[in-house]
Description:
- The structure holds two protein chains of two kinds.
- Chain A contains 15 helices and 13 strands.
- By secondary structure, chain A is an alpha/beta fold.
- In chain A, helix 2 crosses helix 5 and helix 11 crosses helix 12.
- The radius of gyration of chain B is 20 Å and the shape is globular.
- The longest helix of chain B has 16 residues.
- The relative contact order of chain B is 0.16.
- Chain B has a domain of about 180 residues: ANL, N-terminal domain (Rossmann fold, 3-Layer(aba) Sandwich), CATH 3.40.50.12780.
- In chain B, about 30% of the residues lie in helices and about 20% in strands.
- In chain B, helix 1 runs parallel beside helix 4 and helix 4 packs across helix 5.
- The mean pLDDT of chain B is about 95.
- In chain B, strands 1, 4, 5, 8, 9, 10, 11, 12, 13, 14, 15 and 16 form a twelve-stranded mixed sheet that branches.
- Chain B is α/β, with parallel strands linked by helices.
- Chains A and B meet through helix 13 of A and strand 15 of B.
Amino acid sequence: xxxxxxxxxxxxxxxxxxxxxxxSPREIAAALAAAATRWSDDPTLTAELPAMTGLSPxxxxxxxPLAAEAIDCDxxxxxxxxxxxxxxxxxxxxxxxxxxxxxxxxxxxxIALGCLAGAAVVVKSGHGDRVSGPAFQRALASVDPDLAATxxxxxWPGGERALDDVxxxxxxxxxxxxxxxxxxxIAARAPGKVIGYGARVSVAALRDDAPAGALALDVVLHDQRxxxxxxxxxxxxxxxxxxxxxxxxxxxxxxHLPPGRLTTExxxxxxxxxxxxxxxxxxxxxxxxxxxIYDERPRFRPTCGLRTVRVHPLAALPDVLxxxxxxxxxxxxxxxxxxxxxxxxxxxxxxxxxxxxxxxxWPRGQRVALGTLFGHRGPPRxxxxx
Amino acid sequence: MSLGVELAAEIDACARGGPAPxxxxxxxxxxxxxxxxxxxxxxxxxxxxATPSTVTRWQDVPAVPAAAFRHVDLACGTPEIVFRxxxxxxxxxxxxxxxxxxxxxxxxxxLAAFERFVLPDGARLPCLFLLPPPEEKxxxxxxxxxxxxxxxxxxxxxxxxxxxxxxxxxxxxxxxxLAASGEAALLAGPTAAFVRLFDTGRSFRLGPASRVxxxxxxxxxxxxxSRAGFLRRCWTxxxxxxxYCLNEYGMTELCSQRYDSALWDRFHxxxxxxxxxxxxxxxxxxxxxxxxxxxxxxxxTGLLCHHDLANAGSVAVVLTEDLGRTVGxxxxxxxxxxxxxxxxxxxxxxxxxx
Lengths: 386, 354
């Protein structure tokens, strides 16, 4: 793709936006929801995503419905009512999303939020998922061609500065996800426009009789690549016994959700993590389904991902968790102190087993999901799901 | 430590042209020695069901991960020297410690390998070290080794790193004087220090047979520099030909080192062989699968695992966090470091001081 071609696509999308601006939120939400359902049946996804993402076919098959279910019509209408605020003078004309691809299908919420904001949307896919965005646009075109015409999906390799510049120059808002260094580089090129979502992890706090299978799914889904993936578990009661149970469940889960293909470097990273833990005096429970490290010291140390998690005895989370590093806290059988967690920068608290099923309203990074596109900053925000 | 005395004598004899230590008998003897005298290592072996009676091949001696040196003291007796790995990002607790009950064994191994691979022509040169002197960095195994090298093989020694970092003006002035006199010199230090020298933009033509020994690779570099790029800079900035530019691969946890094969090959009629890191006969390196810790096929990437007989006073077999592959019959190539591994090494040594 050349810069001129991208300019043309953006011009077309902005013209199309004028044609749909009078639409009601429910009309747009209904089209998006119908498109998401259609998208989830697109055979391109199951055919191409495993090789592209490195996730197993079974994992892709499990992840697709999770991505689609978040594009829920009623939830989107409520989101617009809550976050759009008084109309339209400051509607973003063009919203650009620069997506990571650690987790597949990030294009769906990006496109949905942009459409709900009444903007034209351009989505630059990450290298590891170049199909979800175009597939969703195709699905949208089949149910609502006019709305689909407001969406541009594209991919170009990192370093294509001319194309990046088109995006950064023309968009009113740039939403970027990725490594902190990538975000800093993008932000420096478009001061004031870029809203970045960098590297974060999640944790869980639960009683020792919590369903280990539900937590194992939270860890295993997307092979623990996302910011909603728990890296540490704090257990009230017999934490060691829970760790042993979790390790057994990991192996069972791996039978129907096998891990993706790991590189030698990734396998070496897991080996190094296990070795370090053993010599620190922790108990390492390693199996084909993943690694559970039981560490009696209640502390926060993210793992390398790749289905590795630390289990600790429960401690007061505000004493353990550093500010600004934890996105979501899964809980079971305990009453979370949401006030304290909000102060730590946690954006979402939900039951264990639902950590990988965020609603579209998830205030990622404590920024309101839709209102951010209108420049609404607001106070820090935490979403509590029961 | 009679075992150490005996092995040091064999290494010295090997350096003078005698036979190399017979690897497997020594490996098994050292394993028994360490199993009996090194409690954390014995416990580690017991968890793997390995005892001197069950281990009958050198390849089966349990390998201690490099991480262990960050958490326990692994020594077969009271240490006379404690070396610490460089790197500060993980705090003091993230620095590994290598305890040496019998330093002469380290000296014997380090000098024999240095002479074998860096000075095969018997050259005796002034030593310019882009490192702090031993009194400023007594816990650096690299600095200690360089001091021994200067004592054994140097005609003089100068250190160019002080509390303020690399003393570039003094180094540049010294190099200019050397270039004017035509005298050859040995320059050694972290790769990152050489890059800082290159970044001054000054160029010299040092005397024939001058040589560079760099170590640490990309660590501590502000921007990436390929090996080919480094060698090119050695030529354009110092006038030193590529076969006199030798990369050293060593670890605080090891008493033996590997070196670039270029000069060794040149003196043994193998100039067309691929550059690789080769070591003395008492150091063997296996490339292992990270999951099984079994050997990978030749040329395949895996974790480097070093079996260093000169480590008789601590643990002889160290599983690194380095990825590499075998090259030819006797060499390895280091491809990088496991993601998330604690930053350490000689490049970090310079970073600590600046």
